[in-house]
Amino acid sequence: MTPAATRTTCPYCGVGCGVTARAGADGAIAIEGDPDHPANRGRLCSKGSALGETLASTSRLLRPRVGGKDTDWDTALSHVARGLSETCERHGPDAVAFYVSGQLLTEDYYVANKLLKGFVGTANIDTNSRLCMASSVAGHKRAFGSDTVPGCYEDLEQADLVVLVGSNFAWCHPVLFQRLQAARADRNTRIVVIDPRRTVTAESADFHLSLASGSDVALFNGLLAYLASNGAADSDYLDSYTSGCADTLETARPFNIEEVARITHLPPDQINAFYEAFLKTERVVTVYSQGVNQSSAGSHKVNAPLYGPYRTCRHGAFLDHRPAKCDGRS
Ligand code: SF4
User: Fold this and answer.
1) Mutate which of 40, 175, 176, 181 to test ligand 1's pocket (most atoms within 8 Å of Cβ)?
2) Mean pLDDT over residues 158-183, rounded?
3) Over the stretch 14-31, which tens digit does the pLDDT of each residue have?
4) In degrees rounded to 5, what are phi and psi of residue 134?
5) CATH number for the 6-55 domain, one of 3.30.200.210, 3.40.1010.20, 3.30.365.10, 3.30.1490.100?
6) How many angstroms is it from 155 CA to the middle of ligand 1?
């Protein structure tokens, strides 16, 4: 009889692929992509496919250790609980802090937060996710008023132009890249990669804009100015749902193609080709990744591609965003 499958999630990257795990009679775990999971529909990349091997690793910690010696769970948990209690009694709850992992699942975060905030009584809990995403949170809040990513994976499959900024999609989000490539085969999606590096993703793109490091904001200010001067603004939408648009356009206007070329070190005809493709394509999706988040002036760079939905924006781009303070170089 085939052993029952446990449905779970690959912890390695933010795509969040669903996997099924089946334990064999010999204890080995067989991993497959979950065909019903909306993120991957059965696909897995090489990292996810190898999950079963990590479970069999001899160097993996399989039981608790206290003072360098193996022990049982009850003893280890009592030891930790006693340490936490004594610290709280002696110094108060704010003497305790948890630094947890960005690889935790939502339910794990909930329990860890409940323990610290609801039981111990301190707000001292953070994760390494902040290092990855703090600039993104700030950018989204400035643009949309909330830290909510307005896109979904299906957008990638329904777009005709996908603009990847600071993202080596092929390596870092491989299953989404596979989905994009499959859609590309169906509908001829064009891909633009904006990245100083010639990555595997850049090699497979229709356009690679290898701009000077740190010049992304100038490129997107120029795009905004180009779209506005070519009549692509949805003025009804902008009047009804946004604020600060006139100031933003005023700031972007000096970024003509010559100025953008001077700052980005890109040839003017490449910039023009990108802007024209963006202007003439109805279904455009802009995706940025850690090359934007984890860089100098990351929040400004996060805001800059958010102009992308400008033309047909349903999501409130420009809300209270004033890039007037950006000089396009930082
Ligand atoms: S893309 Fe690969 S690493 Fe990322 S969640 Fe899916 S299987 Fe895991």
Assistant:
1) 175
2) 94
3) 889 999 999 988 888 999
4) -60, -40
5) 3.30.200.210
6) 19
Residues above pLDDT 70, as percent of the chain: 91
CATH architecture of 133-325: 3-Layer(aba) Sandwich (3.40)
Q: Rounded CA gap, 202 and 211, in Å?
A: 12
Could you identify the atom of ligand 1 that is nearest to the CA of residue 48? 7
Closest-lying ligand 1 atom to the alpha carbon of residue 39: 6
Q: What pLDDT, on the 0 to 100 scale, is given for residue 2?
A: 66
* Nearest CA residue ID for atom 6, ligand 1: 17
Helices (H), the chain: 46-49, 51-55, 73-91, 106-113, 129-144, 153-158, 169-172, 174-187, 200-203, 216-229, 235-241, 245-252, 257-264, 268-280, 290-293, 298-303
d(CA 205, CA 283): 17
pTM as predicted: 0.82
